[in-house]
Amino acid sequence: MTPNQSRRRVRLTPAQYQTLLLAAFMAAASASLIGAPYPREQLLQHGPTCLGLISLVVATRSLVLSSLSFALVIGFLSLHVLGARYIYTYVPYDQWSSSLLGVTLSDLCGFSRNHYDRLVHFAFGALITVPIFEVVSRLARPPLWFAYVLAMSLNMAGSLLYEIGEAVLALLFAPDWAERYLGQQGDLWDAHRDMGFATAGAVIAVLCMEVARRVRRARQGRAAEPCGPAAGPGRVVGRSDR
Length: 242
Fold this sequence. Notes:
Distance between the termini: 48 Å
């Protein structure tokens, strides 16, 4: 074996990459159950986690998602697992920021409530819209603009269904602590604001995808430009050659 071969990086196939990500996430999700401060509420919070895991296993076996989209789903589910451990309302980010920075995020930003749930709803729009767009584009092959609109619409519908399902689940199985499970923190419009944050994330995701597409096309266009038959090494191309 030559030195170059010994230094060659091992490249993972998409299936191997996704399997490793999924295994790491399942290990982290399992570890989050250890010593949980709210075990009963946490288990109820993990209904969506189970659905997400089933979807990821199917995606891994069929390679429906690209590695980027798969990683985005894992990132979102990781945020959800952290929130589920502390039932969102009590995620101690103020304690963490105080230990690291010497000041709490609530003091810095003027928060009067725990906003971790807002972060996760925003992440649902920003991270999950990309995989939805990818699946829609592969399966239905609609025009680009319609794929964008459909991806945002499906994300918004998913956010709405989650809020309804969460409320029904809490009222059916835990009516005595539904307020704590839902994380409203006294806000009558909590569900509406959560859906608004998800919608904002979806819009930002679509804008980022379109900017990335245009940049990619511009780079491809520059790479495809001919240099001209006489433009060899060391030759300055004049105005007449352009």
